[in-house]
What we know:
CATH superfamily of the largest domain: Ribosomal protein L4/L1
CATH class of the largest domain: Alpha Beta
Number of helices: 7
CATH topology of the largest domain: Ribosomal Protein L4, Chain: A
Distance between the termini: 15 Å
Strand order of the largest sheet: 2-1-3-6-4-5
Order of helices and strands: EEHHHEHEHEHEH
Shape: elongated
Helix content: 25-40%
Amino acid sequence: MKWDVFSLENKKVGSIELDDSVFGHAVRADILARAVNWQLAKRRAGTHKTKTRGEVRGSTRKIMRQKGSGRARKGSARVSQMRGGGVSFGPLVRSHAHKLPKKVRRLALKSALSAKREEGKLVVLDAIKLKKPKTGELAKKLGKLGWQSALVIGGAEIDANFARAAANIVGLNVLPCQGANVYDILRSDTLVLTKDAVEKLVERLK
């Protein structure tokens, strides 16, 4: 399918052919959910921890005699039902990461790209280059383009001046094409791809 190509000055400079197998794929909400859960699970630190009865401070002396008191039996003061005791089945330090097949990951990225195209929130730029790393100048250009929340995906390398200028703009994220992922695409309102990024993504996903 044909798609218009714009410059940073919001001027149409041509068109590009988008591959239907990548940008015209059926949107699978279930696959997108699996990919997002997989990404977020890998990010979790997993450092949550509670002390068990073997780790809390306290004596192991039997609190009261076994029989004759008329009350319930009590042993160690470190058991979970006692105040200040350990926690039964509490969280432990662990990894929350799980596996997701490569085919599912590839399908999820296709679905994310196709969803942005269907919503009309896909923008293709000829290049993302600035002569100077000036945040003010870039902010003015973004104002003309009307982007509030955007993910900009460039080629194999991002122009250093553009990356520095974009670093201080709230709602604007910049990634090289190899860093394209489902979560960042979905959480941004507008997906911006350079012509190089389109070619690299097609090579990666086709």
